[in-house]
Each structure stands twice: as structure tokens, then as C-alpha cells.
Specification:
heterodimer, A: 95 residues, alpha+beta, four-stranded antiparallel beta sheet, two-stranded antiparallel sheet, B: 187 residues
Chain lengths: 95, 187
Amino acid sequence: MIIEHPLLGPRDAAEFTYLGDARLIDRPDWQSETAAKDFFEYGYLRDNPAGWHQELWFHEAGDRSWLVITRNTITHEISKVELARDVARSRGRSK
Amino acid sequence: MHDLKTITALGGAEPRIDTFPHITISENDSLALASVAARLGSEVECNKHMQAILGSVPAPGQAVLREPESGFWMGPDQWMIEAPKETHELLADDLKARFAGCASVTEQSGAWVCFDLAGPGMADVTERLCAVPIRKMQTGEARRTIIHQLGCFVVRRTGADHLRIIGPRASAGTLHHALITAAHSTA
């Protein structure tokens, strides 16, 4: 599997490590009234779709950036690769 | 007064040089290293300082090879600066003063070992060590890769067959072993 790194171009998947669902970016607000329930869901509940899935990958043997990769779990086709920090910023994180 | 002598990463009094008919592998003990990481919101100011030091800011996957300082890209808004240890022993302190609050500067000289590979067999040896497209790499390209399970930087330097490998100093012996093994297997 080849991952098209947004900065470095095509790289072999062996250079990367997999973390899982990219919803980990959306850390709940700890001051919210429903924080306990939110963190339970954040920590333990994952969808496991057969099809398109947004995932976090770490370029461990490269520039060590975190990526959000949109991958089809059935075909392993990759439709989109973004820097996780760009995704997080677009969702209003990290100011 | 103590009479202390410095040793190289491989533990010798002098840098180790291994010469083969097709390649020379030299431990380079003369580098001062410091990393520069732009702080959030100060990227533009940090780039200005990088430009002033190196002439241009290393793009992703690239190095800027200049004297005395050279530098290469490590990750988004992060670079490594190299300079001769003899003239720039306090490189990190100097850079810290220069970048003031716009970048985090960390002393790296004690964290890395540097090997210079030069000779007609350089590409053959490199191909056996790591997955960089060495025959396509031009002078001034830099990549991070895995050599013998160790995360290393490889930088194509100015010479036609000169490759610089910067790897973790604590595993200098292991990295050296890998280089020598690859040199023997391509001899």
C-alpha cells in the first residue's frame, strides 16, 4: 500500500504506524455537564465501518507527522491524505 | 584541574575511518547540531531568521548546504541546523538567542552520530541499508528513514557520491556495524 504524503509524496505504508479512528481529534470538553459520558464514548466507542473510514496514521519512519487518511476498509483504496494538524485547525482546535 | 579527553561517538580518541576499495565510511565528529521548531503563530518570523542564516528555508525533503551553517527539513516547521563544532560549539545557545521567542531551539550535538559515505559504491551500499531512492536523489535532498531499525536522516551532500547519515548516537556502534556489513556485502 502506498500513502501519498501531502508534503513528501508517495511513501510505502511500512513507514507508517496506524492509530485508528480520526475522531480522536475531537476530544470532548472536560468542563461540560456530560463530560463523564462524553469521555466514556470518546475513550471506548468506535464505529467499525465496512467502507470509507477516516483514520490517524503516524509517519514514524519519515517526518513524524500525524496524518488523517480516508481509506476504504474493504478495498484499501485511499481517497484523501491530510496533515492531522490541518484537520484539527479546520475544526477549530489548536487555536 | 581535571584532565579530561573527549571521545567520539564510537568511543575512540580519533574518528573512525573505514576504507574499502569502493567506499569510505568516516565517522564525522566535527558537527555541532541544533534543532529549530517554529512556535505556533510565529512561523513567519521564524522563517525570516532561517532565511537569514541559510539563505533560504529548506523545503520538505530538502537541505540547504552552505558554509558554515547548513540545514535540512525534519518535519512541518522543524529543521536541523549543522555547523562545524570547532567554530560553533555553542550553536544551540547562539540560535536560541537569535530566534528569541519565535522558535524552540534544542541542542542536538550529543544526540546524533554522523557518518559520511563517499565513493563509487555509495549507492550500492545505501540501497542495502534503507528505502530511499538513492539513485534519484540529487545534491541537497534529505530524508528521514530507517536503517537497521534506527531512525536516521540521510542527506545527499555536494560531492557526486557523498551521502551523510545522521543516526542516534546511543546506537552508534550498531549503525556502524550495519554500514560496515553493507560495505562488505557490496565489495
